[in-house]
Fold this protein.
Amino acid sequence: MFILLTALMSGNVTVDYLYFSSPYCHACKIQTPIVKELNKDGYNFKIIEGGSSRYNVLSYPTFIIVVTEKGKEIVIVKLQNRQWTKKDLKNLVRAVNLIIRLHG
């Protein structure tokens, strides 16, 4: 998490929130509606069905936070094998956005 904070504090970054799921994953059947509901509330999680060799996603559900600076991915945080509540995910996004606002 320290690397993420350092990158966000450098300013001029973009942050992408990726959510990887599978239709065969029991936990995803609970998690995906929460993510979709957050997107309706204005959050911007990119929902991706299936894995990713680029980010080494092999299990579900997986959240990836990608921080990009000057067109180059500088930080990737992988959060997997955990159920996240709507409140958890909102707090995660708010914390990242707060760091960007304070140091951007």
